[in-house]
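User: For a teaching handout, I'd like to show students what a predicted protein-ligand complex looks like in token form. I'll give you the sequence and the SMILES for zinc ion. Please answer with just the structure.
Assistant: Understood, here is the input followed by the structure.
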Amino acid sequence: MSENEDVVSDDILISVSEYLNQDIKFIRDKTPRFSADPCHCDSCGVELTFLDFVKTAHATDQHSKKFMSDFFEQSKSMKKEFNTVIICGNCQRAVETYVIYQYVNYCPI
Ligand SMILES: [Zn+2]
């Protein structure tokens, strides 16, 4: 994996910050990386994004918006890989995916 591969685009980060009502600064500071396999909806073909992933976690009651918003204010880095469903933002299909996501905090503790 190259250094910049899977880094979530700023457009998506802005949408996530609006969705979670969190300051974009905290989210940018985490430099979120995200990949889903498959990376496209198997029904409509639209790309599954970090925003869809965040919205799905909320829609399926895995995490509250506050939990996810607060998370971006913590100073720890983390990486997770697991199978999960992502709800397509376009057609609402629940797609089975293998997700890798990572947050890297560059600020000194
Ligand atoms: Zn779809």
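For the handout, you might add this sentence: The chain has one domain: 10-103.
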